[in-house]
Amino acid sequence: MTSKRSPGVVRRADTTAIHSVDHFALRVPELEPARRFFSAFGLEPRDEGGGLGVYAKGGDHCWIRIRETGQPKRLDYLCLGAYPEDIDAIAERARVNGVALTDAPEGAPADGLWMRDPDGNPVRVIAAPKVTPSAPDAIDARPCVTNPIGVPIAPARSQGQPVHPRRLSHVLLFTPDVLRTTAFYTGTLGLRISDTSQDLIAFSHGAHASDHHLLAWVKSEAPGLHHSSWIVGSPDEIGMGMEQMFAAGFTEGWGVGRHVIGSNYFYYARDPWGSFAELSCGIDFIGADTEWPSGDYPPEDSFYLWGPPVPEYFTLNTEADR
Ligand SMILES: [Fe+2]
Fold it and tell me: What is the CATH number of domain 20-127?
């Protein structure tokens, strides 16, 4: 079988796979707390279609679609982007693997391939431009370089600018069965395992170049959204973003710290529904021709290199009773 390939795109040879988390969707009890939280986080919620679309500041790509239901918050669906020439092959892979194509959930866009992951999360695959980058992000290296002699390099506190995340990096979901879930995302959607810790957590990257993780899963009693992660320009922006959240009244969270798996610096802000949005910088990157040396890390050595004590609510799955 021959297939057409888009010119100039970054792709792993002979590999059918999604390339991006195009966006994700949430159902929330009320829109206004969502608007306040994501605005404080430095993103730009816009009124769209009776709900909110959440963009990077001044950006043209919608990363989160939020609708109000009056019901407890839950993940509505994941929307994954693929190259147009891969859509039919992904549909065929689903058929061979016994994954049924379904209708869209009520109120969601009908187009694209719809299916359910093993936990029942609706997954939509669309032909779309690659919105996860194909090379690592530039980092503002000023805090990390050797100081020039005789020149102070820290800006004055009054010169600190508001923090605005550039883009979505990844989404981490709770799942009752990490191995079953990863088998679906790797076997049908072409994601590749980056690293794991036993059957407790797994991180996956896009085959066609992505951050160390695009999607990840952590074991829980039920499905749910643990966090979305957003790229900022420097470790300073992570610290200043944390202060920005404190100043807006969002004082619960975890960090600042540095992860082991993925290597990124982080701060997690707790959202109004008990899940998290992560400010992230310096995450490992996996190219389209990289064979990542996957590791299976012992749990006690996998989570973080340094950081404050982990609050009890950090591992709470607030969607467990959905
Ligand atoms: Fe993360």
Answer: 3.10.180.10
